[in-house]
Amino acid sequence: MDKGLAGRSVYAFGDSIVYGHVYPRGFADLVAEQEGMPLTKFARNGATIGADPHASGGQILAQIQEATDTAPDFVLFDGGTNDAQSIFRDRAYDVASYAEELEKTLHTMKRKWPTAHIMYVTAHKLGSRDWDTQMALRKVTLQACRHWDVAIADVFGETTFDTRDDSQRATYTFDDLVDGFPGTEGSGTHPNMAGITTFYVPVVSAGLKQISLR
Fold first, then answer.
1. Which of helix, strand or coil describes residue 117?
2. What sign has the CA pseudo-torsion 184, 131, 12, 35?
3. What is the C-alpha separation between 171 and 42, in angstroms, rounded?
4. What is the mean pLDDT of residues 3-31?
């Protein structure tokens, strides 16, 4: 446990990778427990950055708007996983529309909680999504985060977690529970406990410690 993080509050927004999919504990839960940080999680399965009328979890912007005005010490959020599907498969909107909604999302967080340290967590390399769409969304997301001075916990870029590799997909992701816990042999999207602890927790914890010094 890092004494600089212990006791400091964190809000978590995003999609099923934050929420936990069918198991309601994702990387934000494990990081918060490891560091002794009170966590309030607003993430919803199926959520998107873009305004997809068919998205089962609504927009991440709505999660932020509905959250309390009381500022946390830290904000964690993700996005883009369901957007990649909405853009490539469903043609619900395009990359430019995603970028516009991301700007609104970042602006809303900065305005609502001006004292909070905000960090975007990239998803791992997804074998379950079109690669070119992932790369296009990554480019505009990193640009927007840098413009708004939002820190990045870059699981995509800083780890070897890549579910285009079938052995990694089978070992580190899940779709269903086995005896009440995340199993294996997933589609490549949702990290199981091994995927979270091996790849997400170290990057997110290190990122929080780094921005806590600002």
1. strand
2. positive
3. 28
4. 96
Question: The sheet that has 117-121: what strands, in order across it?
Answer: 39-41, 10-13, 74-77, 117-121, 151-153
- C-alpha to C-alpha distance for 156 and 135, rounded to whole angstroms: 10
11: pLDDT confidence band, cut at 50, 70 and 90? Answer: very high
pLDDT digits (tens, 9 = 90+) for 139-168: 999 999 999 999 999 999 999 999 999 999
Kindly state the tokens that stand for 174.
């899940």
- Whole-angstrom Cα distance, residue 112 to residue 84? 27
In this structure, which amino acid lies at residue 137? L
Token pair of 88 as six digits = 């490539």
Give the pLDDT confidence score for residue 54 in this predicted structure. Answer: 84
Query: Which residues have C-beta within 8 Å of that of residue 199, sequence separation ≥ 6?
Result: 124, 155, 159, 160, 161, 172, 191
Pairing of strands 177-178, 181-182: antiparallel
Local structure of residue 125 (DSSP, 8 states): B
The secondary structure of 126-187, three-state, reads CCCCCHHHHHHHHHHHHHHHHHCCCEEECHHHHCCCECCCHHHHHHHECCCEECCEECCCCC
Nearest to 124 by CA among 172, 54, 75, 74: 172
